[in-house]
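Hi everyone,

Forwarding the result from last night's run.
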Amino acid sequence: MRFHFLTLGLAVTGLCSSLSGEAQTPAAAAVNPLDAIPENMPFDVPYGAPISLDRAEAAIAAAVAEAKKHHWKLNVAVVDSGTNLVAFQRMDGAQLASIAVSEHKARAAASFRRETRVFEDAIQLKQNYYALSLDGIIASRGGIPLIEGGKIVGAIGCSGGTGSQDEAACKVGAATIK
């Protein structure tokens, strides 16, 4: 009987080691989407001159008007192409914690040259958790680069609502920049 258990144990061990070896094959490693090398640089939008105060305030006004239509209470920040705060507005009743979050979303969108939704999708949908190790990101939608003439002049960040509310208001604000 001992011999039977010993034989069974060795068979199971052999099976497990053969399966674990199969997972380590080079063909399996080549399937990893993080190993893909794109032809072109993603999010390669050049930085432009910093957005003016007047234009930053116009973007904020548009975002706030959209929020008011839906009775959302948001904080809205605009940074320039160097990620410096240019203008900010806190709507009456907007949560205090979202002041810093709106600024963080705007800074991340400008410095990484992409909408912050990209980071949210990378973590939530694609499980690319490495993104959490990057300094300065925020994995929450509501940060959008402001692009004029093909160059980033700044970014707008909204916070205080749900991610989809923040993003909707930001898109209206970003649409004022052309």
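Confidence is low (pLDDT under 50) at residues 10-24.

Cheers,
N.
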